[in-house]
Amino acid sequence: MSAQPRLLPWSGTNGQPAYLVTDEEGTGHVSKLADEMEAFQLHMATELVGHALELLGNPKAEVEELRFLSNRMIEALRDALRIAESRGRRLGLSEEDGDDGPEQANEAGG
Prior knowledge:
Blueprint: E1 6-11, E2 17-20, H1 29-56, H2 63-90, H3 102-109
Antiparallel strand pairs: 1-2
Helix pairs in contact: 1-2, 2-3
C-alpha cells in the first residue's frame, strides 16, 4: 500500500476532499479515472485561458461575460491547485514546501 493517500480531483460529500488509498503502482481503475479527470481539467483550463485572452482583448466585452469568465477561471485555478497538491504529495513534498494550498484559496474564494 502507498504510504500517502492520493487526493482525488473531485470532492466527496459536502465538498470534503476525497482520497484514494492504493498500492505503490497506482494503476487501479479509480487511479486511472483520476488521471483522466486531471488531464481533462488541465485541458479545459488551457482552453479557458485562450478564451480569456480573446474576451479580455475585446473592449466591448460585457460585464456579465467578464463575471462568468472570472468564475470559470476561479474554478479552473482551484482544479489546478488540487492537482498540484495531489501530485506534490505523491512526489513526497510536504505542505511546508509550498506557500498557500487550496485550503487558503477556498477560504478566500468561498
